[in-house]
Each structure stands twice: as structure tokens, then as C-alpha cells.
Amino acid sequence: MSATDYIQQNLHPDGMQGFVIRNETAQDERAREDLLDRAMGEGRRRKSSEKLRRGRLPSAGLAFVARGADGTLLGSVRLWDIQAGHDTTGKPVRALLLGPLAVEPLLKGQGIGAALMRHAINEAARLGHGAIILVGDPEYYERFGFSGSKMSELAMPGPVERRRFLALELKQGHLAGCHGLLSPRGRKSSRSMKILPVSLRFSM
């Protein structure tokens, strides 16, 4: 069943949709890519953030999907290991890059994206990561604690609107004094993925 068919058949009369958040599996690849094309368009592959993801796997345990009751993929978010330049002593600073965050267009505004964000942030903190960086609209991401206050001396490997270059420290002071170019540090891509047995259920 396609995502559109699922939505038409299962959308509650009040417009709200139940879903679960689970770790992404290798079998989600086709549905995830189709969702990203619908939600973001094919131009997503030309974004500066893609240079930090290309040829890499998401950070271990930090790729999540939202599913409907029958398993249909309704949303996706992934986090990637990067180097956020260097600190004031010249030491490399490790961080996470979040994105893309995508939700089935017909289901926007129902809390799926927010639930994915909160779960991703909580899991990143639980796993001991120090900070999350993303490129996105501050009007949306500020509610999760993201801001541009730590980003003035950091740069993407390509064009970026400075107002949309945001970060959230999971450990206080993790990005203090950071400067330089963001670069990829994740595991090289392969077909094998280790999946952690995580599942959260939501009813809306």
C-alpha cells in the first residue's frame, strides 16, 4: 500500500493519525527515498548538507522512522557524525548533523515531525553526544532549543543562509569557541546496518 492510499483509508475523522517511532532498517530505504522526494523535491540532493552525508551511514542508533498502524512509512529523521571544526586549543570537535527531517506532506501539522525531533534529541543525549547541528528554519527548530548563537565561526562545505545554521548543545559548552569548516566523520556506507530494538507508540 502506498503512503497516499494508507492516509486516505486510515486518517481519523478529526484529521489526526496514530503512529509509532522505530529505528530505521535497511528495508526502509526505498520508502524513505520516495518520501524525501515527495516532501523535499529532487533538489534536496544539491543541498550543502548532502556533502556531509554522501557516502556515509547515519550515526549508530540514530536513524528513525514514523510508521502508521500497518507499517507504512510516514516520517523520517537521521543524524550523522561530523566534525564541527576545532576548539580554541585546536582539538577537533565531534558533533551530529540532523537531517533531513521529512513527514508525508498530507500529514504535516499532526505532530509527527515534532515527535521524531524529540526522540532523536533524547536518543542523541542518551548516547553521550555533545551537540546537534542542522540547517533549517529557526521558526520551527527554536522550539526544540536550537539557535544560531554558537555558529558564527563555523561554516558549511557550501552555501548556507546564516539564519538557518543552527545548533543545540546536549552538553553545556560543547561548541564553545568552535571554528572552522564542518566535515564528515561518519562510518562509510555499506548495506549492513545494526538496528537497535527501539519502538515508541503514539496515539493522536
Question: Strand-residue fraction?
Answer: 25-35%
User: What would you say the CATH architecture is?
Assistant: 3-Layer(aba) Sandwich
Q: Provide a count of the helices.
A: 5
Look at the structure and give the mean pLDDT: 87
Question: What is the helix fraction of residues, given as a range?
Answer: 10-25%
Give the key terms:
Aminopeptidase, globular, alpha+beta, 204 residues, ten-stranded mixed sheet, 21% helix
Describe, in plain words, how this protein is organized in 3D.
By secondary structure, the protein is an alpha+beta fold. It has a single domain (3-202), classed as 3-Layer(aba) Sandwich (Aminopeptidase). It is 21% helix and 27% strand. It has 5 helices and 10 strands. The protein has helices at 3-10, 29-40, 50-53, 112-126, 138-141, and strands spanning 19-23, 63-67, 73-86, 92-98, 102-103, 131-135, 154-155, 165-169, 179-184, 199-202. Strands 1, 2, 3, 4, 5, 6, 7, 8, 9 and 10 form a 10-stranded mixed sheet that branches. A hairpin with a 5-residue loop joins strand 3 (73-86) and strand 4. The two termini are 22 Å apart.
